[in-house]
Amino acid sequence: GDSVTQMEGPVTLSEEAFLTINCTYTATGYPSLFWYVQYPGEGLQLLLKATKADDKGSNKGFEATYRKETTSFHLEKGSVQVSDSAVYFCALIDSWGKLQFGAGTQVVVTP
Amino acid sequence: DTAVSQTPKYLVTQMGNDKSIKCEQNLGHDTMYWYKQDSKKFLKIMFSYNNKELIINETVPNRFSPKSPDKAHLNLHINSLELGDSAVYFCASAMADRVEYYGYTFGSGTRLTVV
């Protein structure tokens, strides 16, 4: 079945560092891809999305590009802040309409 | 205006008890979901209802019973609670024919602790 694999955390960074979280997927066809973020003690919020190959999703300084050739959707941010500390989930919509998540990557940004 | 609201936010109960978690959405969505998030933050879908009809029923113990009185509400009842049921439970909603564009909208979660 369809699945998502993302890099394990925690990822610890200093403020203003560059962040990359790798995400690859396995699917039949070309599913829509999403990044969700979970701040401490909160629910999941949609961060960005891409619905087809070569689409770039962006929000709050984060970006991810749908790469069909490498079946990837890596999340990047050029300069992280302490407030970006959270767990980030890569996800896809499978052929049944189910949102399937990766295992999540915890990001810790220190001042 | 909370789009997807769950109650209670925290629930502490003893093994063997029966408890319910309620979820309501005011987005006009036609599909609602329950997810379980374990202690390692892994998210797994449990159930989905579309217009009050059960459409997804993953491998979940039959002690868990969802109920959807209307398309804006999806409740989760759990019988004979076990220690392993301790987790955060998330409710979500979506429009079935637009999930590819908008994904799901999630509630803030219910942290269930079984002691």
Task: Tell me about this structure.
The complex is a heterodimer of chains A (111) and B (115). Chain A is built from no helices and 12 strands. Chain A has strands at 3-6, 11-14, 19-21, 23-26, 33-38, 44-50, 56-59, 62-65, 75-77, 86-93, 99-101, 105-110. In chain A, strands 2, 5, 6, 10, 11 and 12 form a 6-stranded mixed sheet that branches. The radius of gyration of chain A is 13 Å and the shape is globular. The termini of chain A are far apart. Chain B is mainly β and 115 residues long. Chain B has 1 helix and 11 strands. In chain B, the strands form 2 sheets. In chain B, strands 2, 4, 5, 6, 9, 10 and 11 form a 7-stranded mixed sheet that branches. In chain B, a hairpin with a 2-residue loop joins strand 7 (64-70) and strand 8. Chain B is globular, with a radius of gyration of 13 Å. Chain B starts with a strand and ends with a strand. The model of chain B has no long low-confidence stretch (mean pLDDT 94). Chains A and B meet through strand 5, strand 6, strand 10 and strand 11 of A and strand 5, helix 1 and strand 10 of B.
Tally the helices of chain A.
Answer: 0
Structural class of chain B: mainly beta
Task: Give the biggest sheet of chain A.
Answer: 6 strands, mixed
| SSE series of chain B | EEEEEEEEEHEE
Class by helix and strand content of chain A? mainly beta
**CA-atom Rg of chain A in angstroms:** 13 Å
Pair with the most extensive interface? A-B, 25 and 23 residues
User: pLDDT average of chain A, as an integer?
Assistant: 96
- Helices and strands of chain A, in order, run as EEEEEEEEEEEE
What percent of residues of chain B adopt helix (DSSP H or I)?
Answer: under 10%
Give the radius of gyration of chain B: 13 Å
Low-pLDDT segments, ≥5 res of chain A: none
Strand proportion of chain A: over 45%
* Mean pLDDT reading of chain B: 94
Number of strands of chain A: 12
Per DSSP, what share of the residues of chain B sits in E-state strands of 2 or more residues? Answer: over 45%
Query: Tell me, what's the shape of chain B?
Result: globular
Low-pLDDT segments, ≥5 res of chain B = none
